[in-house]
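Ops channel
N.P.: pipeline sanity check, posting one input/output pair.
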């Protein structure tokens, strides 16, 4: 059976970059032919300064958001990373198989550490923990946004090194990322950057919990350029192209078809059409999140059930690893 693994950090509210880049694909991958694991990776989310008091609420909000987007806990194992201790245990072993220069050159690390005076060791080790997440479940498919590709290449090379050194253990997973520009949703206020939970300008991202008014306001204020025509050109016109990308992913039409349909409009009028499409798509999801957040016991129960299922597999892999590396497995 195919095994799918992916994760998301509870660093804030799920936004449309996360939705289009990752979660919408996660939903499609759920079916009986696959074993599917989706993890809320809270240990990753503490690698940068964060508010401990908000973390638990963020975890519940992320659980509710994923379920509202269509992750079905009956079909997918939805669980909290920190509740399965084998993730950190395996990450230690993998950390012993790579070098500091290899980690220091990863683009995500360079980007995230660039603005910090003192770089936490956890940020440096982030991709090792990510590799452990994937390898622990022997995942064969990993659906992620384009920003994760280099980190996953490290996971592949760690799997190869482990297999070479200790015998065939881990499969080399296939990274499921769309090769076109739709895999990177841009920040609405600064389209040279990706939409991100932690970007300081909150108007640059649309959260899954935004009200229709918030959505309309943010789309209206989205930075485009001085050309008023609607054309799809992600390299030269990233602002309007991000609006077209999101519209295309919702409607199933290609960006070119949408340009043709709206060729008589200028960007200002086109923004209202995109905003309407986004409001229509995300209002039911937002309402479902509100409903789910009224049942924190249900959300905790989902995570508990997920933990039980994930832990069974994780323990099995860990025992295999422990015996191969020569430590004594704790049965
Ligand atoms: N703008 C984006 N376009 C497409 N995909 C994206 N993803 C994130 N931003 C975009 C994908 O969402 C999944 C979960 O991401 P994450 O929470 O693990 O971490 P991230 O990539 O660091 O996301 P953020 O929103 O930018 O969070 P912060 O600000 O906390 O670092 C991943 O598959 C990612 O590719």
């Amino acid at each position: 059976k195919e095994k799918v693994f992916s994760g998301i950090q509870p660093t804030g509210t799920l936004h449309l970059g996360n939705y289009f880049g990752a979660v919408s694909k996660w939903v499609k991958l759920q079916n009986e032919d696959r074993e599917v694991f989706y993890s809320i990776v809270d240990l990753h989310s503490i690698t940068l300064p964060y508010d401990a008091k908000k973390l638990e609420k963020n975890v519940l909000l992320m659980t509710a958001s994923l379920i509202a987007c269509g992750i079905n806990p009956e079909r997918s194992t939805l669980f909290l990373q920190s509740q399965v201790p084998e993730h950190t245990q395996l990450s230690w072993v993998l950390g012993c198989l790579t070098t500091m220069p290899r980690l220091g050159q990863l683009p995500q690390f360079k980007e995230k550490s660039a603005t910090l005076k003192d770089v936490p060791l956890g940020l440096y080790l982030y991709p090792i923990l990510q590799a452990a997440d994937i390898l622990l479940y022997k995942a064969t498919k990993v659906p992620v946004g384009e920003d994760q590709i280099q980190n996953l290449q490290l996971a592949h090379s760690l799997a190869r090194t482990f297999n070479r050194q200790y015998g065939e253990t881990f499969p080399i997973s296939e990274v499921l990322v769309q090769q076109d520009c739709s895999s990177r949703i841009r920040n609405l206020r600064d389209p040279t950057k990706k939409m991100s939970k932690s970007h300081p300008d909150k108007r640059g991202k649309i959260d899954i919990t935004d009200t229709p008014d918030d959505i309309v306001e943010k789309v209206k204020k989205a930075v485009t350029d001085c050309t008023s025509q609607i054309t799809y050109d992600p390299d030269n016109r990233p602002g309007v192209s991000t609006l077209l990308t999101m519209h295309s992913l919702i409607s199933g039409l290609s960006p070119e078809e949408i340009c043709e349909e709206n060729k008589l409009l200028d960007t200002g009028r086109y923004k209202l059409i995109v905003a309407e499409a986004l409001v229509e798509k995300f209002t039911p999801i937002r309402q479902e999140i509100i409903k789910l957040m009224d049942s924190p016991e249900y959300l905790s129960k989902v995570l508990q059930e997920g933990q039980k299922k994930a832990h069974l597999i994780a323990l099995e892999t860990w025992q295999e690893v422990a015996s191969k590396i020569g430590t004594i497995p704790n049965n």
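N.P.: looks fine end to end. Residues 7-9, 11, 17-18, 21-22, 144-145, 147-148, 183-185, 194-198 surround adenosine-5'-tetraphosphate (CB under 6 Å).
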